[in-house]
Amino acid sequence: MKARDDSALGRFWADVLGWGVASEGPGVTNLEPKDFAYPDPSAVCIDVLRVPDPKTVKNRVHIDLASASADHQADLVARLQDLGATPADIGQGDVPWTVLADPEGNEFCVLEPRSIYRDTGPIAAVVVDCADPRTMARFWGEATDWIVHEAADDLARLRSAAGIGPYLEFVRTPDVKTGLNRVHLDVRPYPGDDHAAEAARLRALGAADIDIGQGDAPWTVLADPEGNEFCLLTPR
């Protein structure tokens, strides 16, 4: 996530998820579950990066939070608003989930209880708006080694091959991507893998090199088949 104030937004999301907070340097706040040891498919970690520009358009990538019951959903919404979240109207109409925005305006959903998310942890899914869910599922499934659980014209859903942790979902929308995504995915080779070889593999799957002003960075910035930026980090 990009943020004007990475520390404040990091604290918000750490409180939301019950996660720990660390920092790898000025302007970068890292969030992960307490006692988490990478790589572990039980969670998708969050890095908050400080940038000078404010949010101006609806995000194409957002987080859905899981709830265990109607009472839990209501209590969670109330707690999130106490932490600084605000109601958000993105044209959702009368739906059973609640749409909120974090303190920097990033939209996210608190879902009503759904059996599919009963064991995901606090994050039910990372959701990406797109034009073609099937194509996106095919690319990201091969890019991450995650399993495609559903692929239809309007929705595609992936999950770790271990069958744990949150889902990665692609939802068909009519919106057109404008500018850089304020929330984006990062992927990282496993320990011992070759960074250059992994970059070549992703390009062969359909990723493209892009320049977002990253300069001489140790990571590689790519775009998926619909132009969404993502970073290939160095092995850890």
Automatic annotation (TrEMBL):
Glyoxalase-like domain sequence ranges: 3-111, 125-233
Source domain of life: Bacteria
Pfam family, one: Glyoxalase_6
Protein name in UniProt: VOC family protein
Species assigned in the record: Actinomadura violacea
